[in-house]
Design a protein that fits this description.
Elements lengths: L23 E4 H10 L1 H9 L8 H20 L20 H16 L9 H14 L8 H22 L3 E11 L3 E11 L12 E6 L8 H22 L5 E6 L17 E4 L3 H24 L12 H5 L18
Parallel strand pairs: 1-3, 4-5
Antiparallel strand pairs: 2-3, 3-4, 5-6
Bound molecules: iron/sulfur cluster (SF4).
Length: 334
């Protein structure tokens, strides 16, 4: 018997699929600044997603940012409408002993599965953020780091809160731009209005918190911070049609000490110059760095930072330092 084979697709022509136009998103800090600091570290932890053994820097910077974000939400009544217009803890400060005692009691309470009421708003927000970080495997290595973070947060709240909080127009202000080959994005910590100004984006200042102290950063890190703020200024201009009034870096570690400073330390606040030529230079540099990252991805080749271009601190806590051609530290074997 002859079977008449049916060819259902005969005569149908299907064009070959187009290459999808998927654009990669590049974050100003997590991609561009991280790659510029050390491509080898960026390749290992951001591209290949190896988990670093310790995340001290991530812990410290993130906890400061997120607790301050809650302080702004507290002032705006977003957490509880009853706190609108008030500072967390009314700006009061717990002593080191009171904070340490609470940490010790909390440890015992957690073991006994009991709930312990935090002694202040700042400590309450701190523990909330810390629990969130713990669930991502990010923890403080020592109790001293936790104590220092709470102290800096209390000092900032007491010193800057009364004038700053009421001027804050937005927090975690997202910015992004489509740049043909990629999408560029960033998040500004604060948009701060000029006192008594009418609602106008040209009167806003962009503020970015840094967990470090100004005096401890090296030239390369400072250049990276300035670069970051200039790219943010461009993104701000694309979103709002005007440049921000100022770009400010706030170095929280400058507040460190036995007591809360009564006035802002001179090095705590740095205004970054945002002339048009400097912004254009930063945007060009951004595009160049994106090409370098794409090339490194293609070849899967991630070069270590050149000696002198990275701080000793960065190398000292880097898991890759043991076999790195540029270990910027004296290696001590355990
Ligand atoms: S030791 Fe320093 S140069 Fe080497 S990968 Fe780590 S951060 Fe980069």
């Amino acid at each position: 018997m002859v079977i008449d084979r049916v060819k259902p697709f005969q005569g149908i022509s299907i064009s070959s699929p187009k290459t999808p136009n998927i654009k990669r998103r590049y974050s100003v800090t997590q991609d561009i600044v991280a790659f510029r600091r050390c491509a080898r570290q960026y390749g290992a932890f951001n591209v290949h997603k190896y988990a670093p053994a310790y995340q001290t820097q991530t812990y410290f910077g993130t906890i400061l940012h997120q607790v301050l974000d809650r302080c702004h939400a507290h002032f705006n009544g977003k957490i509880n409408p009853l706190t609108k217009g008030t500072l967390p803890d009314n700006g009061s400060i717990l002593s080191n002993d009171e904070i340490n005692d609470y940490f010790d009691e909390l440890k015992q309470a957690e073991k006994a599965k009991e709930v312990l009421v935090p002694p202040s708003d700042i400590v309450k927000y701190f523990i909330q953020v810390e629990n969130g970080l713990k669930s991502q495997g990010i923890q403080a290595i020592t109790q001293d780091i936790r104590l220092k973070a709470v102290k800096l947060l209390q000092y900032f709240n007491a010193l800057e809160g009364p004038e700053l909080y009421k001027r804050v127009k937005d927090t975690e202000h997202g910015l992004q731009a489509d740049r043909t080959t990629h999408i560029l994005h960033g998040v500004v910590d604060l948009l701060v209005d000029t006192p008594n100004a009418i609602d106008n984006p040209a009167h806003c200042e962009m503020w970015d918190y840094k967990g470090s102290s100004f005096l401890n950063i090296n030239r390369q890190d400072l250049e990276n911070y300035e670069f970051q703020m200039r790219v943010y200024a461009k993104l701000y201009e694309l979103k709002h049609g005007v440049l921000p009034r100022k770009a400010i870096l706030y170095f929280l570690n400058e507040l460190d000490g036995d007591t809360c400073p009564t006035q802002r330390p001179v090095n705590a606040l740095l205004e970054v110059s945002i002339k048009q030529s400097e912004i254009d230079g930063a945007v060009n540099e951004f595009a160049k760095t994106v090409l370098e990252i794409e090339k490194a991805r293609c070849n899967d080749q991630w070069n270590p930072a050149v000696l002198g271009k990275i701080s000793e601190q960065d190398c000292a806590i880097c898991d890759l330092r043991w076999d790195c051609p540029t270990p910027n530290v004296t290696l001590r074997y355990p």
